[in-house]
Write a structure and sequence with these properties.
The complex is a heterodimer of chains A (425) and B (972). With 425 residues, chain A is mainly α. Chain A has 14 helices and eight strands. Chain A starts with 7 loop residues before the first helix and ends in a 27-residue tail after the last helix. With 972 residues, chain B is mainly beta. The chains are: A mainly alpha (425), B mainly beta (972).
Amino acid sequence: MKKINFNKIRGSKILVLLAALVFLTTTACEELDFVDPNGPSLEQTSVQTLVTGIEAGMRIDHEFYLRDVLVIGREAYYLEPSDPRYTGELLGKDGTQIDPSGFLLVRPWGSRYRVIRNCNFLIQQNDKGASGFAKTIMAYQLLLNLNLTWDNGIRIDVAGDKPGPFVSKEAALDHISSLLDEAKADLDAAGSSFSFELSNGFAEFNTPAEFAKFNRGLKARVAIYQKDYSTALTALSQSFLDVGAPLSKGVYLDYGTGVGDQLNPIFEVPTATSIKLFAHPSFLADAEAGDTRVSSKTFVRSESTTIDGLTSNIAVTIFGSNTDPLPIMRNEELILLRAEANIGAGNYADAETDINFIRNSAGLPNVTLDASNALDELLKQKRYSLFGEGYRWIDLRLYDKLDTLPIDRPGDLVHKQMPRPSTEI
Amino acid sequence: MRPTITVVIFFLLFLGVVQAQKLELEGRVFDKETGEPLLGANITIKGTNLGTVTDLEGKFHITLPNFKSATLVVSYIGYKRVTINVHESRYNLSIGLEPDILKTSEVVISGLASSVKRENLANSVATLSAEELTEVPTQTLDQQLYGKFAGVNVSANSGAPGGGISVNLRGVTTINAENQPLYVLDGVILDNTATQSGVNAVTKATGGGNSNFQDNPVNRIADLVPEDIESIEILKGSSAAAIYGSKASNGVVIIKTKQGTAGRTSLNFRQQFGFNELSKKLGSRKFTAETALATFGQRGLEEFNKGKTYDHEEEMYGEKGFIHQTSLGLGGGSQTSRYYLSLYQRSDDGIIKNTGYKKQSVRLNLSHLISDRVDVKVFANYIHSSADRGLTNNDNSGTSFGLALTSTPSFFNLLPVNGVYPENPFVGSNPIQTRDLMTNNETVNRTIVSGNVRFNILKTEKQLLDFIVVGGIDYYTQINKAVFPRELQFEKASGQPGTSILGETVSSNNNLYLNLTHNFFLTPTINFRTSVGYQIENKDYDHTLSVAEDLIVGQENIDQAASVDVQQDRVIQRDRGFYAQEEVNIEDIYFLTVGIRGDASSSNGDVNKFFLFPKASASVRLSKFDFWGGLSSVFPEFKIRTAYGKTGNSPIPGAKYSSFVPANISGKGGLIVATRRGNPNIEPEKTSEIEVGFDATLFNGDGTLEFSYYKRNVSDLILFRDLPPSTGYDEEVINGGEMETSGIEVSLGYSLFNSKEFSWTTKVNFYKTQSTITKLDVPAFNTLGFADILGRFRIEEGKSATQIVGLENGVLKQLGDETPDFQMSFVNNLRWNNFDLGFLWDWKQGGDIINLTKLLSDLFGTTADLDTPEGKARAAAFGKTTHQLIEDGTYLKLREISLGYTFPRQTVQDIFGGLFTRLRLGLSGRNLVTITKYSSYDPEVSNFGNKAIGRSIEVTPFPHSRSYYFDISLGF
């Protein structure tokens, strides 16, 4: 009954067709595998693009970090009429705590870890110089986040898909310090030049040997946070500290108008109708007469601005244009760090030399230091020398002197640190 | 009792031994009503692959060498099928076919290369024929679908010319993935991307509470010409669409275009003239000196004291836009070659000056029978369209027409005085000036070409094996050009006056299907149909947007500017799939289908993995059994059916990639990790659906009743998961949720009267759907909307996927749902002698809308009722509660109405000297009546365009219009 009517030719045609279908099905998938048409993959990156990306990325959201530490440290007000958090939350208005999900914390925090992710990719590139660069920057970025959360700690194990646990401030500082040492070892083994170019912000630090001097500067800053003064002094001796060099010598975030570049986010025209960043009124009030740093770093506007009960007429003039670089670490800070380490170690005479060097540079006469006045004098010089660079809050916290900060409105608080971001929990 | 299968087989075996006989059959097929011959009617011998077609005079002849008796099945598109039993040779068969008004004899697509008679279909598949598509003309094809099917929800995003319409089949299917159905036109998968125009650079709509674009884009299905279409079939759910695999979760719309008829040249020329006008005005507040001062301060009082009032709405939306549409269709051919040629042009002026829509199209369809073994079909279409869409929807710069109007009190003059447009002191722009001087044009050039080749490899009485190749290309370029000259009020105030926006899109879709179908009669009553195939589908979309600012005076080119920002976005998707399907027809009573499709896609994390999409369905025609007996007077045909199927929805483009983005410094190009981490394991969303239902004909076939219930589960929903920022990333795309939807669909069709003088056919559709989020691997999150206090959509486990939430005195609560309670439509076609009347009512019950247009006019103090107690209470509630912003979107619309007179054939021949035989004059209208309590322009609105969830948000849209036409149709 079932008489199949295929003749041989037809049968073979069908077999050929079926074979063709099987062939197509099994081989086609190769053309489905292609790279992202809209952006490069890891394989398409290079040491140079990763390094440049890290440098550019260090600037992302850094303005939020600076506004946080400047406002909490009562160096400045950020009078932003459309966002009450700068004048409310940051100053602890009526006891307000920092919002763990707010952008003032989450954005700079996340962007620093984004740079760290890039650094981790760079470390895998098997280039000693690049590794030394990456680890140094990684340490710096971790330190910036630790500066925000301090006793609440940070995550340090973030190379994998899932981040490791939060560690204490002490463990974090130890990790940052040893990361800087690893970086130093890589830099020492990296030969006489980097295989990549750095931005203008690293113009004087673009060889492994010179870059290592920046690494040691950071090491000294961290050692002081650890109150390990001898390590700090050793590190400073290997840093770019040089009383014969300009105080401005150092490492910077570079800004520019080129394609895909960024403009200095802190700069404002001091005479513009409305500006947002104002020096805290105490900056003028507390200054010694004749301090040239006051006149060079601020401009007194003819009209005061008042928002949310805060009033100031002092514009910040540490930058002259929207392409001025923003300091990461300067010679002036290193000289002050040496004074700080010497004060910590009880070497008041050595500290006095450096303090007076800084005072004279600012047009102020010498002082004599002893145990009773050395720390206060140091903190004052750091306040004026590094105004606008974001150290005052951190320094006062280190010496448990946050209660010396002025309270502008009844009910305001001085926050000791920020909470862990809610997105991390 | 009916013979069982074994009995049948035994009978056949017995037959095999009997002496073979010869049967010769000859006859003529004609239209029973007019007596005209039907050429090309199909004559098949039941239970075999044997058959023939009628010739130019409707005649046929067939010789059956080994038959003692036979059953002839005579079918012709648009007519009821007829079955005739013969036991001896006949030479004068006279077969009259009746028109199939209710489409009970229709043949419906059941696979990528197979079709099935509607009687046997195990799914609910909705179809629409050419006559039902073009009674009242529309700019775009999707507008023709309103109210014509159960389970199909069509909704315009605004009244802007040129489209922007959502077609949603059976409710919500996804949260973040593609939400529009797959459109297949003559075998080509069409691109339906909605490309943003780029006017966001001016409106800054993304700068506020929501970063989704709100440029009121057009989804490109708008380009198709309704006049070219022969039929539309809608595979609504996964159970019907499974064979389309990983792109079919939103259903499939299969469109076939017209073809000429063998032996008869037909021409249809149609000219329509009309106009459209604003459907509804909102009015504006009547001010007093006190309220002017209180609302607008001293300046307001000064303007008020000038003592004049202006109807800004009339000025802006009051144009009577002229419309004309011309179409010409010419078809014909011989028994081996057929052709169809169409020319089309349409031009609409919008209700806003300087807006409008133009479309031209040429189509040529050819088919040729190379031999009785090979036939070839080619479909080619070129379309040019141009839309001027104005500047509407939300903005954050006071520039969109509607937003500027809500901010401007009626006592301020916006019209130019001595050629100078007054500066509007109440908002950043003078919308009349903006309207008169700006450009926002979208021009598309599109070519859609496809081919279909069928080789018959084997043909015997019992077996038929075909190899079918279907392939095609859909290629278009879209240019968006928006120019805002320097002299506009808001441009002058900007730091970089003058904006020129140029969007360039090149989209290329192609697909190739290779199919083998095998038809096998195991016995005359048991038929197996096997199909297997391989599919190649490619999409390449490339969009470049350039925004130039600080234009040189009088210049529009993007290089004539001080700064230019350029962005490019590409989407490449390549899919490879296979399928196999087996259909079994037993005695025309039982119909079973099983099938599977496997799809691999470049969008999936694992490109080598074939995701499998199975399907199975069964139907039984109960009315064929003896026990049906007495019921057959009520239900002469009654079929129960059940179907299961699974489909997919591709992950959003690029979800799998961990890429880097540019980060430049000191003139060096750098790369930093993107904030979204790629998910190398991302998979398609999967939708499983079970559908059960019945189809019946009523009382002698005068009516049809269809009922379907479906329930489906969408799993592996594509969601965005926040990552701990210490990973260096903000988020990743995951498969992490499930949703359940269910609904019912009922369609009742009835031929109330059907005589030579008077006929009346009516169809009622009823459908409803609901959804629940059953599992969510991420915390509840907000989707579209601007802020809790303004009402927004929120995805929450255990809640409806389309719920609307808001703040009531500080507490977040569910306040509404955009899914309607139900939808109904009433389609009526009446004929009295030479007069015809058609009308369609479309009813949506429920479905809430967030009306922010009213909120804005409340905030700016211009709402008409603001001085009434209700208006005051509503304005005062802002900031405390949200419920006053959420309105019921119930509507009843007279979508279509047409009245026509067809001249007697003889009269027409006399008038035109025999050149034409058909002339119809008609009047028609679209959306002439809208009954709704919704207080803004129209409850059909979507500020964010086509979104799966969150359409129902209104922010100063382009208002809807109604249109009127005069229609002349001439042909032979």
